[in-house]
Amino acid sequence: MTLLVITPDYASHLLPLATIGTAWRDAGDDVVVATGPATEPIVHEFGLRRVDLPLGRGSNAGVMRPGEQPKDEAASLQGFFDATRRGMVPTLAYQARERLTDLMWDPVGRARRTLEVIDEVAPDAIVVDHLAFSARLALQTAGIAYADVVLGHPSALPVAGEVYGFPPAWPTAFAPDASELEDLRMLCTEVSRRFTDQWNAAARELDPSASDIPDAFASHGDLVLYNYPAELADGDGRALPAHAFLGSTRRDEAADPEVERWLADDEPFVYVSFGSFLSVRDDVLARVAEALRTLGLRAAIATGATEPAALGPIPSDWLVRGFLPQVRLLGRAAAAVTHGGNNSVTEAVGQGVPLVVLPFSTDQFAGAAAIERTGLGRALDPNRADAADLAAAIDAVLRSGSSSLADIARAQREQPGPAIAYAALTGTSATS
C-alpha cells in the first residue's frame, strides 16, 4: 500500500502530517510526502520519501525569519508580526486580506503539479493538510478521494453559520468592540467570497465542466481528520462533517544529551514556546521569563527567533535554546506557556500538561477559549498581560490538578492519533 501525504513546506504543518504517516510506515507500507524542499531533512528523519510539490511562496524548516523568505513573503510576514502588536482584531483583519495572495498561490500550476505527483506515486490513499488549498482544488476537481487533516481548533474548517477567519469564540481576556467585530466579519465574508471566486475560476480552467462550490474555505475531503482532542471540541455545538478526532499526533524525537542531563533534576519546571512564527514576540517572552523568575520556577524556554539575551537574566537552572525537543519536555513539564498553536496545545493536552495560552492569531483565539471553557488552563491577552498577571496564571494552573487532563492523556496513550487515522482510512483497529 502507498500513502501520499500532501503538506505545505512548513515544519509546523509537516510534523503532524508526517507523524500520521508513521502508522503506515510502521505497517510496512510506502509513505511519500509531497512538499517543498525546505523541509526535506525532516521528511528523511521520519524515514519517508519526498517528492517535490511547493505549495506557497514561503517556507519554514523550523524558525520563521522574514529575512530568509522571498521579498513578497518577507513583507507579508513583517506586516503580520506588526499587526500582532496592535491586537486581536487588527491581526485577524490583516490575515484576512493576506489570504487572497498566500493561500492560492499559482493555483492552476500547483493543482496540475499535484495531479502529476499522483500519477507518479499512484497512491492507494491520500491525506492532505487542509490549508494545502491548491492541492485540494486539484483533488476535488478531478474527483479523487482524500482525507482532509485540519490542524488547530476545528473552526479552521468553518461549518454552517461561520465565516473563515472570524473566531466563533474567544477567551474572556479579550473584549473587542462590537462594531470592530462586525467590520471584521464583513471583511472575512468578502474575502471568503473572493477566495471562492478564485477557486471556482481555477477549477474551471482545470476542467471546464467543473461545478462552482459555494464556499471554498468550507470545502473538505471525504473524511476530515481533526488533529485535536475531542474533549476540547465538546460543547462547541458545531455540526461537523464525517470525521475522526486524532487527539494529537505525538511524534518520536531523537535523544538530546543536553536535555536528558537537564531532566535528571526532578524539580518541576514550566515549558515555554511560541512556535516557529510567534517566537518573534520577544517582548512577551521577556514578560513570561520575568514571571517565572518571580515564582522561582525552573524553565525550559524555546526562544526561536528571539535572542536569549532578550529574556533578561537567565537563572543557572533554566534550559534556554533556540529549539528544544517539545514532546520530550512536555512529557515531564508541570505546566506550559504557549501561543496556542496546534502542536503546542495538542502535545501538551495529550500528555496531561495544563496550559497558559497567549493567543495572537487565527484559530488560536477559539482554541484558547476551549482551553478556558474546559478548565484545562488559562488564557490571557499577550499584549496586555504583565508579568504579575502571567505569574498569577502560571501559579493557578500549577495548582489546578485537573483530572480531565489525566484522563485525556491516558486515552491518547491507548489510542494514538496516527493509529486512529490509520484505522479510519483502512478499516482496522485503532488500538496501539
Automatic annotation (TrEMBL):
One MF term in the entry's GO annotations: UDP-glycosyltransferase activity
Keyword annotations: Glycosyltransferase, Transferase
Coiled-coil stretches noted in the UniProt entry, renumbered to this chain: none
PROSITE patterns according to UniProt: UDPGT (PS00375)
GO biological process: antibiotic biosynthetic process
CDD domains on file: GT1_Gtf-like
Signal peptide residue numbers: none
Family the entry assigns: Belongs to the UDP-glycosyltransferase family.
Descriptive protein name: Glycosyltransferase family 1 protein
Native source species: Microbacterium hatanonis
